[in-house]
Design brief:
GH-type_carb-bd, 1 helix, Aldose_1/G6P_1-epimerase, 41% strand
Length: 323
């Protein structure tokens, strides 16, 4: 995955301290274990109504969500990466690059990869380790009429602590509706000391790059990596409509809670968020000649480091709506 970010040290937003209260459930977050873990080689099975687990590409465990209204989504436990979101008319609104590798070693290039606990380059591996680890299904689904839900979780281990020496618990709730796909990411500090991180959902949308447009960013402060990705230029977005007619790699600080994305294929997608402070637009243009014409990235992000105290949590939500 190419970098669509700035380094953690360049983040311009102030450090935030989060003080969400602990979960009211009887079992503490730092002792709850996943109820269901999937290994490669598992035959297809139904985990709950509308939730199936099977082997995906490369033999990796894959979850398929099916809503009662005909929409469908696929999520790989490796990286908790949503790789497909099909609305009832059969259109897949997400994009997986043709060079994506499903080997359980390299992050999946496409769909909705996680960036945690680092967005972009920095002290640890590019975009952090969450997209490069196996997640587990956690808890029982909370399906409601017209929606299908699954919860995935990730906890620190020797691999993560070798890079980022903190104890944490990540819970990722994915809900599929008739015309929307929503996610809630909760990062809980289960360590005895505070930690800070940055994060993003690096969403790849299927698109016609010459026709794709984003509305709602006018007036945002920007960090533009065109023409020199190593030296972002600070500025302010003056356009009502942002296009992708060339190389695009731009961070929008303090972005609004709603953006309107037209994919150039006849579809309008509303990208909503709660507590993702920033947005990122990315298309590599000729740097990825084989596929750049077929996608753009419209990402919710938290560029500035968030400081989370022990036993406290940071929570952010995304809702993408097809119309």
């Amino acid at each position: 995955m190419a970098s669509a970010a700035i380094s953690m040290s360049m983040a311009s937003s102030p450090v935030k301290t989060l003080n969400y209260r602990s979960s009211s459930k009887k079992t503490p977050w730092n002792t709850r274990r996943p109820k269901f873990s999937v290994k490669a080689g598992l035959e297809q099975r139904t985990y709950a109504k509308g939730v199936e687990v099977s082997q995906g590409n490369g033999g990796l465990p894959k979850i398929t969500l099916k809503s009662p209204t005909g929409s469908e989504a696929e999520i790989y436990l490796f990286g908790a990466c949503v790789t497909s979101w099909k609305v009832p008319n059969g259109k897949d609104l997400l994009f997986v690059r043709p060079d994506a590798v499903f080997n359980g070693k390299k992050p999946i290039s496409g769909g909705i990869p996680h960036c945690f606990p680092q967005f972009g380059p920095g002290p640890i591996q590019q975009h952090g380790f969450a997209r490069n680890m196996n997640w587990s299904i956690s808890e029982d689904p909370e399906n409601s009429e017209g929606e299908t839900t699954v919860k995935l979780e990730l906890q620190d281990d020797s691999y993560s602590r070798a890079m980022w020496d903190f104890s944490f618990h990540a819970l990722y709730k994915v809900t599929l509706g008739e015309r929307n796909l929503s996610t809630t990411l909760t990062i809980r500090n289960t360590d005895a000391k505070p930690f800070s991180f940055s994060s993003a959902l690096h969403t790849y949308f299927r698109a016609s790059v010459t026709e794709a447009k984003v509305k709602g960013l006018k007036g945002c402060k920007t960090l533009n990596k065109d023409p020199d990705p190593q030296n972002p230029i600070e500025g302010t977005e003056v356009r009502e409509i942002v296009d992708f007619l060339g190389f695009v790699d731009c961070v929008y600080l303090n972005a609004p809670n709603q953006l309107i994305f037209e994919n150039g294929l006849g579809d309008t997608i509303t990208v909503e968020n709660t507590n993702w402070s920033d947005a990122v637009l990315w298309n590599p243009h000729l740097q990825m000649e084989a596929c750049y014409k077929d996608f753009v990235c419209v990402e919710n992000a938290q560029i500035g480091n968030v400081l989370v105290e022990p036993e406290q949590s940071w929570i952010a939500e995304q809702n993408i709506i097809f119309s």
